DNA sequence: AAACCTTGCAACCGCGAGTGC
DNA sequence: GGCACTCGCGGTTGCAAGGTT
């Protein structure tokens, strides 16, 4: 899997994939003399390549300490964590992963991790829950997945009300009111209550502990500041965050639930919530896929279909989704 | 089974930083 | 300070392989 030979450039230097013979020459030369000046290396090594190409080949492929093969879960987590702090500083990230090259990490990010985060409803640039139409879909899945998470007697109509309420702000003149406080809302949804300790902290229930920070969803999506200690909540209040505990003292009745900010973090809590209705183009939405994943992973089959069938009432936002 | 589409990734390109004269 | 040169980084390309229609 490589570029096809492009032929010689105007300087007569070869481009394209390296042959085994070229690799052998490069390895032999560097093992004997070190790379020294990359510019001078190809001439000394008998290679009809530019120094840049030699350097790239050595660093990304021929170096003896290169670790090939799939990235482990641990490596994956390290990359995600470092990327949230460093951004696209691939070489800096690579220094924390012995044997991995910046190019390899960059490719892995672009082909796997980026998509994975998108599917989780997380913006791969800011590492925060996405707050756009696409994220809405992830949120829809979360509502369903969250329901599945706790549902022994989950009421389908209630689920649909929640679903509708989340969607309605797009165009509904009469949104359904939700319980005013987050805690009450969780009760309303049948989710386990937050555990309050004697310091007025609330601990997220075990069911909602995630691989990805569950606290991400409780802060302002528009604030790009990484979460390091205190952060702002959705209403602009400072929220103290410490060891997965949230200081709830500043939460007030203006909190609504479900919130577009909270829900994305729930995606990965569900073992079935990973299937996303998001394709590679990021902006195309396939309602059939949504329907299928709902049917497969939730206990309210047909919810979407029923919803779509009732198009007369919801045509505007169905258009938005489609 | 052929055509088309998607995915994975090696390699290229352009640019900026660093260095020496 | 200005210039030339080298190196390293990040973004992008383009093709083979695999998957889907």
TrEMBL record:
It is found in: Nucleus. GO terms for cellular component: nucleus. GO terms for molecular function: DNA binding. It comes from Dillenia turbinata. Residues 13-62, 63-117 form the HTH myb-type domain. CDD domains: SANT. Residues 10-62, 63-113 form the Myb-like domain. SUPFAM superfamilies: Homeodomain-like (SSF46689). InterPro entries: Homeodomain-like_sf, Myb_dom, Myb_TF_plants, SANT/Myb. Keywords: DNA-binding, Nucleus, Repeat. This is SANT/Myb domain.
